[in-house]
Known about the structure:
The chain is an alpha+beta fold. It starts with 8 loop residues before the first helix and ends in a 6-residue tail after the last strand. Helices cover 17% and strands 24% of the residues. The protein has a 6-stranded antiparallel beta sheet. The chain has a two-stranded antiparallel ribbon with strand order 1-2. The protein has a domain at 40-133. It is elongated, with a radius of gyration of 16 Å. The longest helix has 9 residues, at 9-17. The chain contains 3 helices and 8 strands; from the N terminus they run H-H-E-E-E-E-E-E-H-E-E.
Amino acid sequence: MQKSISISTDVFAAIWANRQGGEDSEDAILRRVLKCPYPSKSSSTAGSAPQGGVNDSRNGVQFPEGFEAIRAYKGVEYKATATNGIWLRQDTGDRFSTLNQLNGTIADGNENIWNGNWKYRSDSGKLISINTLRT
């Protein structure tokens, strides 16, 4: 359920001044600042799932809680963890609702995240494209 509150312009500006990458609403900013957990999918948040992780319903992929996505770009390895409906970028702690948003903070220009650059490590230790997880 959404609630509306009245705040002054300076408080509104202060909320947005505290914004971190991937936070695209006052709710997302205040959840982090106030340490409120992200609601489960049944509560309404599109990216979350009852068992945690991140649900990409558009591509038919459920990334389980703790799933680690890995990407190399210009000689640097980046990692992100699927947790409570968001992607947590490991090097900065920034949170993103989609892997596309996260990727935009790493790679120059628009890029299809399913093109093979994002990978995960299999049980055998081999890096595999996340594209293999799509249904």
